[in-house]
Amino acid sequence: MLGAVAGVLATVLAVTALWWPRKEVTYRNTAPSSIVYADESPHFLSLVHEHTLSGRHAYRMVIGRSPGASYGHWVEVDPVLGAEGVESTTWSESGVRVRFRTGHEIFVPARSFLFGR
Fold first, then answer.
1. Considering the domain boundaries, does residue 11 fall inside one?
2. Most buried in the list 58, 78, 81, 90, measured by CB within 10 Å?
3. Edge-to-edge strands of the sheet including 105-109?
4. In a domain, 51, yes or no
5. CA distance linking residue 64 with residue 111, whole number of Å
């Protein structure tokens, strides 16, 4: 009886560990030093893959002054685009354009991620 309970507990712990909420950065990019924004800070873009306890997968881009993707302007990304991945990132004085392998593009104006937003 005790062996059966231990087996069930081990299975529950293993499944929980696999489904436990976690985040992983699947893409990183840094604005080139030739582009100087009004806040005079370096800027970073990360594509973050979030796994939820319910098994849901979400993707978000975070753009800001934190290279660790812990703070900045968040943009929800369709899971299909996020799973396919980023093809290229183009920084300009007006903002950042991200092109996905599907051909879709997302443009984020600089005013959305400047000054610590």
1. no
2. 81
3. 86-92, 95-100, 105-109
4. yes
5. 11
CA angle 67, 105, 70 (to 5 degrees): 20
- Distance between CA atoms of residues 93 and 48, nearest Å: 24
How many domains does the structure of the chain reveal? Answer: 1
20-53 pLDDT tens trace: 778 899 999 999 999 999 999 999 999 999 987 7
Which residues form the domain of 71?
A: 21-116
Torsion angles phi and psi, residue 61, rounded to 5? -95, 140
- pLDDT(13) > 60: no
- What's the alpha-carbon Rg for the chain, to the nearest Å? 19
Q: Is the dihedral of CA 26, 71, 108, 94 positive or negative?
A: negative
Task: Output the six-digit token pair for 117.
Answer: 């937003």
Tell me whether residue 101 is in a domain.
Answer: yes
Q: Which candidate, 70, 68, 76, 69, places its Cα nearest to that of 108?
A: 76
Helix (H), strand (E), coil (C) string for 28-47: EEECCCCCCCCCCCCCEEEE
Four-point Cα dihedral 9, 10, 12, 16, nearest 10? 140
